[in-house]
Amino acid sequence: MAIVEMRDLALSVRGASSSGSGPPPHIWGMVSSVRSAIRVVHATSPAAGVAKVQSSLGKWLPWAGDPNRGRRATASAAANYIAVVEQCASWHAASPLAFTRWEERGVVSYGQHSVEVLVRVVLESSTGVWGRLILWDSPPLTVDAAELMASPVVELLDSIHGPDMVQGAEVWQCRTGETHTITARAARLKRNAVAAHLSRL
Predict the structure, then answer these.
(1) Nearest to 97 by CA among 167, 175, 186
(2) Residue 97 DSSP class
(3) CA atoms of 157 and 163, how far apart (whole Å)
(4) What is the longest distance spanned by two Cα atoms in the chain?
(5) How many CB atoms lie within 10 A of CB 159?
(6) Residue 151: exposed, middle, or buried by beta-carbon count in 10 A (0-12, 13-18, 19+)?
(7) What is the secondary structure of 99-123 as a DSSP string?
(8) 147 near 13, Cβ under 8 Å?
């Protein structure tokens, strides 16, 4: 059985793929800082999350005018990552959903293929449970891609909380400023489409 990570599914449904070896170590450090700041955005406050990422990555910003190309690229990456957290914080501050927990994981089976699902944020409304996927890569987000990503998220949440409680999933593309809210019904209807997509990978 082939297992596909959620990250790879999120890229492939947008016509992209993982970059293999990944970024250099200092950029991986920035990614870790972004992930930590986004957690603070939800678990503490949007302002605290923004302050955390600015404290972690702001030291690179003065390199923006450096004659060294590598330093300028590092400054640009830091500025982009700070903007990602600022966007996430702005959206969360305006959201009516209440944060309940950070990360739920599990495997959702699609016959000969499975998706290793990571729901970064779990939230609640007065009517039930929501998942939130947070992206900060480059590929843009369409409604169809968001529905394909939301499908295994909703299925995992169904298995944990029960389908009567699960209301849907939000997919946030914080780099490009796109967000889609997918109802549980719309996500469940995409199960066959997800299975077909996995069979083509």
Answers:
(1) 167
(2) P
(3) 8
(4) 58
(5) 15
(6) buried
(7) EEEEEEEEEEEETTEEEEEEEEEEE
(8) no
179 φ, ψ (degrees, to nearest 5): -140, 140
The pair of structure tokens assigned to 153 is 């998220």
Query: Do you know the residue count of the chain?
Result: 201
Cα(105)–Cα(117) distance, integer angstroms: 6
The neighbouring-strand residues paired with 170 are 132, 181
Whole-model pTM: value is 0.93
Q: Look at the block and give the residue holding tokens 């972004």.
A: 34
pLDDT by 10s per residue, the chain, length 201? 689 999 999 999 999 987 655 666 677 889 999 999 999 999 999 999 999 999 999 999 999 999 999 999 999 999 999 999 999 999 999 999 999 999 999 999 999 999 999 999 999 999 999 999 999 999 999 999 999 999 999 999 999 999 999 999 999 999 999 999 999 999 999 999 999 999 998
Strand, coil or helix: what is 56? helix
Alpha-carbon span 21 to 24, nearest angstrom: 9
